[in-house]
Write a structure and sequence with these properties.
The complex is a heterodimer of chains A (252) and B (482).
Chain A lengths: L2 E12 L2 E12 L3 E5 L6 H9 L4 E10 L2 E2 L5 H6 L2 E4 L6 E5 H15 L7 H14 L10 E2 L5 H15 L3 E5 L7 H13 L6 E5 L4 H5 L4 E6 L2 E6 L1 H10 L1 H8 L1
Parallel strand pairs in A: 3-10, 3-11, 6-9, 9-10
Antiparallel strand pairs in A: 1-2, 1-4, 4-5, 7-8, 11-12
Chain B lengths: L2 H16 L3 H5 L8 H10 L4 H14 L41 H10 L3 H7 L6 H19 L2 E4 H7 L1 H7 L10 H9 L4 E5 L9 E2 L14 E6 L4 E7 L10 E2 L2 E6 L4 E8 L13 E10 L5 E8 L4 E4 L2 E4 L5 E10 L4 E10 L5 E10 L4 E10 L7 E10 L5 E10 L5 E10 L2 H8 L5 H17 L4 H14 L6
Parallel strand pairs in B: 2-4, 3-5, 4-7, 5-8, 6-9, 7-9, 8-10, 9-11, 9-12, 10-13, 11-14, 12-14, 13-15, 14-16, 15-17, 16-18, 17-19
Antiparallel strand pairs in B: 1-2
Classes of the chains: A alpha/beta (252), B alpha/beta (482).
């Protein structure tokens, strides 16, 4: 199995504040990794830094994705190379159609892969199929991106996008936060449907609840900007029992 | 040179010899404006006496007026005596002989705007096939309209074929005394469109200025008059997205619309006059008076405009809602980039009971552009139960541009309702990043967001204009990001 993502001693600053302090992580193709940790530990910062969000300054360290220097690529280039960020707080873009955005995004990825653009009919068929899986109604198609969506709907929309774009590396930032149990199951089903030997997923999450449905291969605990402990899925259960202080205490 | 072009050359040369342009050729009018110039213009057009008199009254009135300076605009002084008020139709021999002679930047713009190849030559002023094209297309067009009884012709032609209509309606919405530029226009207007739609007729096609032959060289002081008789409907498209140059800097047009009982006029404009260079030098001054009167009950007039050109845009397409239950609408996207300025908006004057108006104005400012919305909603004492809804949004791109709003609300009837919403925003970094994170390039991302911002206006445009308008917006805001 090849290393899809190789993060080596990453240090990241946001607004002059040091958030990631030497984070090292290897994700191989086909694996699902969960990143857990207390508030402020740097979970979202990791997700944003990987996606290339402006304002997230990499002060040292390297990130290799598919053998390439990820940090040298612009955010849109990373996306076209199959990196997907599921936002924790997806923004509304009124007036820009959901379907329009999805089609443009898919065609950008396809172009990168040397594939022809998908036509409108083909695309609608594809989207409808995924929408059914995510329990999203037809009316969503004509609405603006996330416009007037509830928190749960926004999260389901993120997963829908993931299903359409079929990324090689999906980074889902607290996709489970704010979801009721039914919505959580739908989201989990979506994520699981993408599991394959060629695709990997990094789940950033606060609670172990999601991990009951999307069973991770590895669990890492982030404390004060670096991975303090790694283990398999049972680590998540232990955390639930003993709290983050246990790990933080040991890492100190 | 091709066979066609040679034939055309000969035709034109022969035409001049045959004299239908000899008269014009013989008097080249020097710059300056006085009664003799006005009489000359009227004589050249073979106008009836009532019109010559009307022009002269306008001129005499204009000479007593002062140029207005209340707008939020910096306008270099205009020397009215340095303008030539009459010029012969441009001899096609003077234009570029082929697309090879046309400014490559202009051709690049046509490419970006998706202008069909056969149109590029015409727009660039190349004297190839243009006459043959418009004659053949316009002929079919004219036949369809004639069958429906719709009159659509140059104003100068209508003056001769339908003088009674012109006399009845000209100046009834914009009187010659209205304002400095309208008065000037009334004295020296060159040509424009005349439309009359008979009772109960739904005009079978969208009327576009492209189909009006002799459209060249009439940009300076255009005069348009559209009359929709009882129960009729017409949709009129003015302008085009392709950038147009003109050696005449001042454009002071007047457009009058009259809708009788149950009639509906939809007037759409896409304007991209030359805005001046990146330093703001040159560029057209577009000072226009446009007004529609909903004269009949349940009549309806809507103005839709996409204004991206001109160095200075100064216009307020308005509606006088006289007829009971009549409706007035104004949908506008106005952009300013580099050093452009715009002071634009609308006036909705509610006179009749139960009249309604909707105003949606989207202003986009970029570079060092200054965009001003100025709107008047006036409810007269007679406007029982009248309603207005106004939404006025500004989008700022970059830190050097400006957006200004001057809403005027005058309500003299206690049962009338006025709603006004306004917002000012920048393109949000979060929205941009969201699109980038989905693989959309930076420029496309901005265009998507801007189009989304303008959506409620674009959806009011006739379809082919809507597509043109989106492309136009993208091109006019080029370089405004980053």
């Amino acid at each position: 199995m090849t290393a899809l993502l190789n993060i080596d001693d990453l240090h990241v600053c946001v607004d002059g504040k040091k958030i990631l302090n030497g984070l090292t992580l290897e994700v191989r193709s086909g694996e699902v990794h969960a990143i857990m940790g207390p508030n402020g530990s740097g979970k979202s910062t990791l997700a944003y830094a990987l996606a290339g969000r402006p304002g997230y300054a990499i002060t040292s360290g390297t990130v290799r994705y598919l053998g390439r220097d990820l940090l040298a690529l612009a955010p849109e280039e990373r996306a076209r190379e199959g990196l997907f960020l599921g936002f924790q707080y997806p923004v509304e873009i009124p007036g820009v159609n959901n379907v329009y955005l999805l089609k443009a995004a898919l065609n950008a990825v396809r172009k990168q892969r040397g594939l022809p653009e998908v036509d409108a009919f083909e695309f609608l068929g594809l989207v409808r199929e995924k929408m059914q899986l995510m329990h999203i109604e037809d009316s969503f198609l004509s609405r603006g991106v996330n416009e007037g969506f509830s928190g749960g709907e926004k999260k389901r929309n993120e997963i829908l996008q993931m299903l359409v774009l079929e990324p090689r590396l999906a980074i889902l930032d607290e996709t489970d936060s704010g979801l009721d149990i039914d919505a959580l199951k739908v989201v989990a089903a979506g994520v699981n449907s993408q599991r394959s030997p060629e695709r990997s997923c990094v789940l950033v999450t606060h609670y172990q609840r999601l991990l009951e449905y999307v069973v991770p291969d590895f669990v890492h605990v982030l404390v004060r900007g670096r991975i303090a402990r790694s283990g398999d899925r049972t680590l998540a259960l232990e955390l639930e029992r003993r709290g983050y202080d246990w790990v933080a205490g040991e890492a100190a | 040179m091709s066979e066609n072009a040679k034939q055309l050359e000969n035709l034109i040369a022969r035409g001049y010899q045959h004299g239908f342009v000899t008269e014009i050729d013989a008097d080249t009018v020097p710059p300056g404006l006085d009664e003799d110039v006005v009489r000359l213009i009227s004589r050249k057009k073979h106008e009836p006496a009532f019109l010559t008199e009307w022009r002269l009254k306008a001129l005499r009135h204009w000479l007593t007026m002062q140029e207005p300076h209340w707008a939020h605009l910096k306008v270099a002084p205009i020397d009215y005596q340095a303008i030539s008020y009459y010029s012969a139709p441009k001899a096609k021999k003077d234009g570029p002989k082929s697309l090879d002679e046309v400014d490559p930047k202009l051709l690049e713009t046509y490419e970006k705007l998706g202008v069909p190849l056969h149109e590029r030559a015409r727009l660039a002023g190349v004297a190839v096939d243009a006459v043959f094209d418009s004659v053949s297309v316009a002929t079919t067009f004219k036949e369809t309209l004639a069958a429906a009884g719709v009159v659509f012709c140059p104003f100068s032609e209508a003056v001769r074929t339908h003088p009674e209509l012109v006399e009845r309606y000209l100046g009834s919405v914009v009187p010659y005394t209205d304002n400095f530029f309208a008065t000037l226009n009334s004295a020296v207007f060159s040509d424009g469109s005349f439309v009359y739609v008979p009772k109960g007729v739904r005009c079978p096609m969208e009327l576009s200025t492209y189909f009006r032959i002799n459209a060249m060289n009439t940009g300076q002081f255009e005069r348009t008059l559209i009359i929709a008789d009882v129960g009729s409907y017409v949709s009129y498209l003015e302008g085009c997205s392709a950038p147009q140059r003109d050696e005449n800097q001042l454009h002071a047009a007047v457009v009058e619309l009259i809708a009788l009982d149950d009639a509906h006029i939809k007037y759409s404009t896409v304007q991209n006059w030359y805005p001046g260079d990146a330093r703001g030098v040159g560029g057209i001054y577009n000072f226009v008076t446009k007004r529609g009167e909903c004269r009949g009950r349940n009549s309806h007039i809507s103005w839709t405009q996409v204004e991206t050109g001109s160095a200075i845009t100064w216009k307020y397409p308005s509606c006088v809602l006289r007829g009971e239950g009549s409706i007035g609408e104004f949908y506008s996207v106005a952009t300013v980039n580099n050093h452009q300025q715009a002071d634009t908006g609308t006036k909705m004057i509610h006179i009749g009971k139960g009249t309604r108006s909707t105003i949606i104005s989207k202003g986009i400012s970029a570079g060092q552009g200054q965009n001003t919305y100025r709107g008047l909603v006036r409810m007269l004492p007679s406007a029982h139960g009248a309603r207005n809804f106004t939404q006025c949004d500004s989008l700022l791109m970059g830190g050097k541009c400006g957006a200004h709003t001057f809403p005027y609300v005058e309500v003299k009837n206690p049962s009338a309702t006025v709603e006004h919403e306004a917002s000012t925003s920048k393109i949000s970094d979060d929205q941009l990043f969201y699109l980038l994170a989905r693989g959309i390039g930076a420029e496309d991302a901005v265009n998507m967001i801007v189009s989304g911002f303008c959506k409620s206006v674009f959806k009011e445009l006739p379809m082919e204009f809507a597509v043109e308008a989106q492309n136009l917006l993208a091109v006019s805001l080029e370089g405004a990001v980053g």
